[in-house]
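Researcher: We plan to redesign the surface later, but first we want a full-length starting point. Tokens attached.
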């Protein structure tokens, strides 16, 4: 019997501004999913202004009924609540009006995996706000390829062979599989450019799914600025996969990601508790939450708020210091993104105005 985990998310309106998701949206989404007969179990949360639906079922990935259920939640709550209460950017991520079988390409972010449940299957879901899909590149590399992060790569015979990384070129839409440890330099050459090359999935050498991410590029889909992707990632842990603590370890360092204010600034990726998943300072800083649970007979058992822990206080402290340091650059790079990576710019208008003044 195979089990599927689908995480489908969308920003259907922030309150206030782009800071967070109103509790009414979360409560109503919970009610709808609890009543659904299409799925076996669900967990609803938010990260910043993104509403996150975690669902377990037996229908596989890219299933029409599952995608339709998520789309109906987003569309229904946009009409019933976000628009009525005039939340900011109501229905922001619903780029198309008619559902046609799959939410991919319609605005919401999707990360799904299907697997045969092991004797025990711990699953961790990470959800981010104010950053791009490539933000998972650094932690995924550390989790599955870096022995200084993951002790099991060296000392667990079941992990010693390494992993396979599936990398998407967001510009061409093509993917390439690279193995670790054999091809780590090639892998790093690509994923060190996270705005273009995005780790889409990780597999064991036996081809068991270990991790998946959402890899939508909203800006390319919409052809205009509609916010960063605010991606999600799902990881399986233990017994041949990295331990829960090895999956969490990279987040002890608040590395720089692009996004933050107006999707156009670099800032520290800050691990926070679900209670602190609100973007505040300069619309951020970019945040990540983690929820872990056991998947048991297609049910979600014992969910835990993984970053609600003093062990991550130092990362938060460092993030505050890094945010201060970066903010002091104001409109200068490298705080502000390079011109071609900014989500919107006044540059053409400024250049037009100054054209005659350039001598
Ligand atoms: C970033 C984001 C926000 C907005 C900013 C301006 O992804 O959503 O930082 O870009 O608040 O929003 P507008 O232009 O809607 O006032
Ligand atoms: Mg928003
Ligand atoms: Mg968002």
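Model: Full-length starting sequence:
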């Amino acid at each position: 019997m195979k089990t599927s985990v689908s995480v489908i998310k969308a920003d259907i309106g922030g309150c206030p501004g782009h800071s967070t998701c109103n509790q009414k949206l979360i409560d109503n989404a919970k009610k709808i999913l609890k009543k659904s007969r299409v799925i076996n179990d669900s967990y609803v949360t938010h990260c910043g202004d993104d509403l996150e639906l975690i669902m377990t079922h037996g229908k596989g990935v890219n299933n029409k009924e599952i995608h339709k259920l998520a789309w109906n939640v987003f569309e229904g709550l946009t009409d019933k609540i976000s628009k009525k209460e005039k939340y900011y950017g109501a229905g922001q991520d619903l780029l198309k009006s008619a559902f046609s079988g799959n939410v991919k390409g319609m605005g919401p972010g999707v990360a799904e995996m299907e697997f045969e449940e092991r004797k025990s299957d711990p699953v961790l879901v990470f959800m981010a706000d104010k950053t791009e899909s490539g933000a998972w590149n650094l932690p995924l590399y550390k989790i599955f390829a870096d022995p200084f992060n993951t002790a099991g790569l060296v000392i667990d015979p079941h992990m010693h062979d390494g992993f396979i990384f599936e990398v998407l070129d967001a510009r061409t839409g093509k993917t390439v599989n690279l193995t670790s440890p054999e091809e780590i330099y090639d892998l790093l050459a690509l994923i060190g450019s996270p705005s273009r090359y995005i780790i889409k999935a990780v597999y064991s050498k036996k081809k068991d799914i270990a991790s998946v991410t959402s890899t939508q590029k909203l800006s390319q889909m919409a052809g205009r600025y509609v916010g960063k992707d605010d991606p999600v990632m799902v990881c399986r842990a233990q017994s041949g996969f990295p331990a829960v603590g090895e999956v969490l370890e990279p987040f002890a360092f608040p590395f720089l990601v692009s996004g933050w204010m107006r999707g156009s600034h670099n800032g520290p990726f800050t691990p926070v508790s679900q209670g602190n998943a609100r973007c505040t300072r300069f619309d951020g800083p970019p945040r990540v939450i983690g929820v872990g649970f056991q998947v048991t007979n297609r049910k979600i058992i014992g969910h835990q708020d993984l970053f609600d822990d003093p062990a991550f206080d130092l990362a938060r402290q460092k993030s505050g210091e890094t945010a201060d340091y970066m903010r002091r650059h104001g409109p200068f790079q490298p705080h502000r993104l390079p011109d071609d990576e900014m989500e919107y710019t006044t540059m053409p208008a400024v250049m037009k105005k100054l054209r005659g003044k350039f001598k």
